[in-house]
# Entry
Amino acid sequence: MNARQNTDMEQRAHADHHASLRLWLRMLSCTTRIEDTIRQRLREQFGITLPRFDLMVQLEREPEGLAMGEVSRRMMVTGGNVTTIVDQLEREQLVQRQAVPGDRRSYRLSLTAAGRSAFATMAQAHEAWVRELLSPLSSKEQSQLATLLGTLKTANPRPMRSSARKEKP
# Structure
């Protein structure tokens, strides 16, 4: 087990911390637990990592394919990370690279037929897991939480600088 799995972010807070700090740590803790569960289930049931699944999500949304740079931007990872993930998915014949006419250095990525089929199965399982993991909240509570988090998201736009999540593929 890694440190991330052993650490509950919320345990860092104590009574004399401001309520906002305790809330922020609770949100981190919930997010981490849900993400770790999904990550584990993807690995166990489909032999795929979350970054590889995330890349397939991006390609599934764009049937005409995406430029590697656009995938990198959407996933908030470096181009090198995308290349590593694509190399793996391409070896498994789930993703294909297509040269961009007039630019020998650029490629468009798209799912293969096998990739679309595999992704459909994984996406269905993923949706069921998310529903299960959020099921302790009623539909009304989920709606309320979505509204509250939407307000918080709107009040805190992304920083202008580009930030890359750092995770190994």
